[in-house]
Amino acid sequence: MTELSGASRPSIGDYLIRRIRETGCRHVFGVPGDYVLNFYAMLDRSPLRVINTCDEQGAGFAADAYARMQGFGVVCATYMVGGLKLLNTTAQAYAERSPVLVIAGAPGYRERERHPLLHHRDPATAFREIDRVIAEIVRTKRPGCIELPRDMVDMVPVGDLPSPVPVAAARDGRPADEVVERVAAVLDGAERPVIVAGVEVARFGLEPAVRELAARTGIPIVATFLGKSAVDETDPRYLGVYSGAVGDEAVREYVESSDCLLLLGVLLTDVNLGGNTAVLDPERMISLSAGGCSIGREACPVPGLELLPALARRSLRVHDRSTAPTPVRERTPAFAPTPARLTTERLVLALNAFVDETTVLIADVGDAVMMSMDVTTRAPGRFLCPVYYSSLGFAVPAAVGVQAARPDLRPLVLVGDGAFQMTGMEVSIAARYGMNPIVFVLNNAGFGTERPMIDGSFNDVAQWRYHLVPTLLGSGKGYLVTTEDELAAALAEARKSKELSVLEVVLAPDDISPQLRRLCRRLAEGVKR
Amino acid sequence: MTELSGASRPSIGDYLIRRIRETGCRHVFGVPGDYVLNFYAMLDRSPLRVINTCDEQGAGFAADAYARMQGFGVVCATYMVGGLKLLNTTAQAYAERSPVLVIAGAPGYRERERHPLLHHRDPATAFREIDRVIAEIVRTKRPGCIELPRDMVDMVPVGDLPSPVPVAAARDGRPADEVVERVAAVLDGAERPVIVAGVEVARFGLEPAVRELAARTGIPIVATFLGKSAVDETDPRYLGVYSGAVGDEAVREYVESSDCLLLLGVLLTDVNLGGNTAVLDPERMISLSAGGCSIGREACPVPGLELLPALARRSLRVHDRSTAPTPVRERTPAFAPTPARLTTERLVLALNAFVDETTVLIADVGDAVMMSMDVTTRAPGRFLCPVYYSSLGFAVPAAVGVQAARPDLRPLVLVGDGAFQMTGMEVSIAARYGMNPIVFVLNNAGFGTERPMIDGSFNDVAQWRYHLVPTLLGSGKGYLVTTEDELAAALAEARKSKELSVLEVVLAPDDISPQLRRLCRRLAEGVKR
């Protein structure tokens, strides 16, 4: 039991579990090992549910995706061999602001005879440290790590329990109010302002404030690529993804000719902004982010995103949207299958038609994400991809994390063959825990993203018959899809199925999306120069 | 072309490739990415052969195994997402002294406008740094890393090429000679000395010197677990693996009652020495290792392993070996298959009978390595396992590295189901490059090593039908083995096959080797205390 009841006192392990549960988190991802085995046994007895993945990498990605959906994710691994395998996934969580707690097992203090770290044996310190790390993860939406020596798991400290840590310090309102007024004045003075929504809008739960601001002022919204679906893509004021020269041309033109861009929670990074093809004039930008605030080239000393609710409620001029382009979703043609060989372009239309209110679209890096750019999700927070950090292999384990967090939703996974060979066998974890993602393996015989840059046999991948993966697992169903009709039939069956579905979609090696073709051209310039 | 011919001058990439080739290395393992793509294109045109793995983890393990077989291994990955995934495999290479060069791609200098690292733009520095890193890897048998900004790959520096770096500095002979005399005196005065051979004997190519020493003095040899096969296991003076209470009882008793243990290249670590069950009196130990030398409790300021050839050639007393136990290999019963259900104990006998002069036995962590302990290899350097660092998932990618280094040999891989789910799909890389390892997947439905410590559903793994892996790949053949007769039939067929063979060996979840049972008891004491 992890509950504190009356006079019973928690051990360090109990206390950690209790604090994790208080964040709303209900699952822990990981791979056990001897340095963390007794904590796993404690987790097994607790109300938290353990989800074992094939490899620590999969656990790290699953916890990251869980955190993006749920607000807090936990991954638990053993000393060294486990923890080191989590560095890449944790770097991604840091870069893309995903609130993940890493619990790393460790040798017991009594085993470390030469290094008696007496400081940490102070139990009040242990409890306070647990509180501090969890509060910082929640506050900053960045990962944090707790190392748990195995002989401390069951230790019941004496002395007073710490008082709760305040999650966020109170701020002085005056400079913030002043900045809100200045932002309002710039917006009111603009002729054609545009809201650019970034990923922090999703992380900090500010989607309603952004939509309220747009609704009250008539200002159109675009999303960065990493911020796709941070704002409901069916909002009437939402135009589509802005991603420099890589994205939709009408959206690009409108954004780049705007006299005032209001960036909300945007990370200014290369891939996020179309491989540095974005042409944005800092003079015409207002940026409110978790880390700061700027108006034109002037930085203001306040965390900008916190001003958003006040700005959304304030009286502001109503703008005319008549010059804005038709939203991308309204320009996307319907899909009527034919017997023809399937192409990337047609697949995008089929996906767009398939997505519904229960779909979470999860894209891996490569053309999988590029072809997702213009697929419209039907509710906020329903698109996941590490567009900025770009670690291949995120999507399949992310589906496990997503469906653990939201069993009422269904992941639709787009993953290239190269990325699938890294972590794709984590679909077996979905099968083990009764999840039913629909996984599209885009089989174009290699790293299609790299071929247009510099090609060689190093861009080929080994041959796998991906549609046989369910056969290997003895669970779910696989489909080999080469034509539009086969795709339609497989999708109809997958939609009804309660089990894992794996669709191996065979594409010509040179059939890449127009978005990817444009991005590759940009990246190749970087490689060659 | 990477050759320097007459007046043509090498680029930085050319120079790196040329230096790698001079170590005798012929392959580079890795996964490409945009920050390292132009170097991959250069590798593709060079005499070095690129082997693409499914994931960077697999490439790191393959390069480590290649280095263990060949003396130098190379893994090449892209910036961040690739490099960070290599931290765990590189930590293992460090811990177990495997000479691996990590090449990490990076943004070009011209892309890093805010950080013009002018120092590194000095081409003479680049060449000298390449020389220095490679020389240190060769000298210390530890991994090293070179970061390669993508705009430096094709850069042809001006100025003089550096003079070759001496690989090892000359040493003063006198203190060394004195230490040799002291060691000789202790050995000559001992009644029942034993040579304990460690992994460094293999890394530094000292196997002939160890055998010469044993042949001239009659002193019996045992190996540590990590040092298994460092000395030819068919040498008449070789008794078996010493691993504290975990290993063979007669060997343990003989070693622990010896009045003089000559440790040659031994890493004194926990798992290597039977989970700290080894009872060795430092007063009766002489240790000659790459890093130092000690006689009893006294440390001598010389790199001890370098003294070995002089010691082996010196006149020494001949010892009587009549009290030594019969070698483990001579006590191992033959295997005659029956229709009975296969057990771990009988599997060990079958493996022992199957191993021949061309076999490289590669064990993963867990019961796979425990049951390998008493299987006799037929030539030196034919056993690979990260016994000390113990990262699960080494064995299958290691087979790719081994067969790249030695296409004349055949890997026999023992891997548990849990470890196979981490990296086992790298068998597809073996298939892609025409390799034919024989892979035993020991299916006991979970982490059998952990069950005797603390059990719970967290020790279960997802269900895979491992014998269908070749079907998934469309290459090689799979076997489902539950009885001794099925094992014998599968082995006979696999031995003749030129293709990948995957044997799914079904074992009862509680059927673990006696060695593992003893080790788990030790480790569980650590978990619980």
List the helices and strands and how they pair.
The structure is a homodimer.
Chain A: H1 12-22, E1 27-30, H2 37-45, E2 49-52, H3 56-70, E3 73-77, H4 87-95, E4 100-106, H5 123-140, E5 144-149, H6 173-189, E6 193-197, H7 199-203, H8 207-217, E7 221-223, E8 238-241, H9 249-256, E9 260-264, E10 285-288, E11 293-295, E12 298-300, H10 308-313, H11 328-331, H12 344-354, E13 359-363, H13 367-372, E14 383-384, H14 395-405, E15 410-416, H15 417-423, H16 427-432, E16 438-443, H17 469-473, E17 477-481, H18 484-496, E18 501-506, H19 514-528
Parallel strand pairs in A: 1-2, 1-3, 3-4, 4-5, 6-7, 6-9, 7-8, 9-10, 13-14, 13-15, 15-16, 16-18, 17-18
Antiparallel strand pairs in A: 10-11, 11-12
What would the keywords be for this entry?
homodimer, 529 residues, alpha/beta, Rossmann fold, 3 domains, 7-stranded mixed sheet, 6-stranded parallel sheet, 35% helix, globular, disordered N terminus
Strand content of chain A: 15-25%
Q: What's the CATH first level of the largest domain in chain A?
A: Alpha Beta
CATH topology value of the largest domain in chain A? Rossmann fold
Q: Give the tally of structural domains of chain A.
A: 3
Number-wise, the strands of chain A total 18
